[in-house]
Design goal:
128 residues; 0% strand
Length: 128
């Protein structure tokens, strides 16, 4: 069995366990997901050296203007990642993780940031 197929098998097994554990707890999970989006976006973007604070991230996601200048890239990084997180929360029960869905999420994530590479694999010697 190849490494990729082992990973895919493991992912599918974890997904099944999650779906069983989440049964009849949909409203609680939805509430937790909504609360967590801003923190997930903030933490993920902080790893990538975003200058946004948690409060600024929450403000952006609420469609409120900030009191300071931020780059267009940081604005779209926050908004796009929130869209991806919400999309995953809504679609995770219906779809399995496949190459096509990963590229779709990549396109959502890089929309208005790097449209030239969004939704595709990198070519040789290509860096973001």
């Amino acid at each position: 069995m190849t490494r990729e197929s082992k990973i895919e098998t493991n992912l599918q097994s974890l997904r099944k366990r999650y779906l069983i554990a989440a049964k009849h707890k949909e409203s609680l999970i939805q509430l937790l997901n909504e609360i967590e989006v801003a923190e997930q976006v903030y933490n993920s973007n902080a790893i990538e050296n975003s200058t946004l604070s948690l409060e600024e991230t929450k403000t952006i996601l609420l469609q409120i203007d900030l009191d300071r200048y931020i780059t267009e890239r940081e604005l779209f990084e926050a908004k796009n990642l929130a869209r991806v997180v919400s999309y995953i929360d809504k679609k995770s029960k219906e779809n399995t993780l496949e190459c096509e869905s990963i590229l779709f999420l990549h396109k959502m994530l890089l929309s208005n940031i790097r449209d030239d590479i969004a939704g595709r694999f990198r070519k040789d010697n290509e860096y973001v």
